[in-house]
Amino acid sequence: MKVLSIKADGRVKAVRIMAQYDNEVTQADIKKLMPSRTGVILATKISRLAFLYVLFVERDAANKKLPANMVASMLLNEDAGLIRGDVVLARTNHFGSGSKYYALDDAEINGIIERMSQLYGDKINLER
Q1: Do the Cβ atoms of 12 and 113 come closer than 8 Å?
Q2: How far apart are CA 30 and CA 46, in angstroms?
């Protein structure tokens, strides 16, 4: 199973992780992909009733003057502002206390990339 790594320079890569029971992703797995403390933001433009997608973002990215991540930022509502630095995208069962995070399968990743390309207005290539 995989999660999506969206780099600030626009590269998107499916990263293989060791998912737990029922494809659950642990916070320790996310920490391996993110350089520092993370926050979680709902990716509102690609989430729908059956699937909620979240972005793990670096908490102090604005203070560190990291570059804007335009690909990840377009996944949010317009009033949410810019995301800075690299992010990791995964799925969740609900947003809030006690939520669990899940890895993505290949078909789901392809659908996300297609939707991201539509929102971005340009083809987003998935690095393998």
Answers
A1: yes
A2: 20
Q: pTM for the whole thing?
A: 0.91
d(CA 104, CA 17): 10
Residue keyed to tokens 């909620």: 52
Alpha carbons 22 and 65: distance in angstroms, whole number: 37
The conformational region for residue 40 under phi > 0 = left, psi -120 to 50 = alpha, else beta, is beta
Tokens of 17: 């992780």
Neighbouring CB atoms inside 10 A of 107's CB total 8
Backbone angles phi, psi at 13, to 5 degrees: -135, 140
Q: How far apart are the C-alpha atoms of 45 and 53, rounded to whole Å?
A: 9
Query: Any idea where the domains of the chain sit in the sequence?
Result: 2-127
Task: Tell me the per-residue pLDDT of 50-93, one tens digit each, with 9 for 90 and over.
Answer: 789 999 999 876 677 889 999 999 999 888 889 999 999 999 98
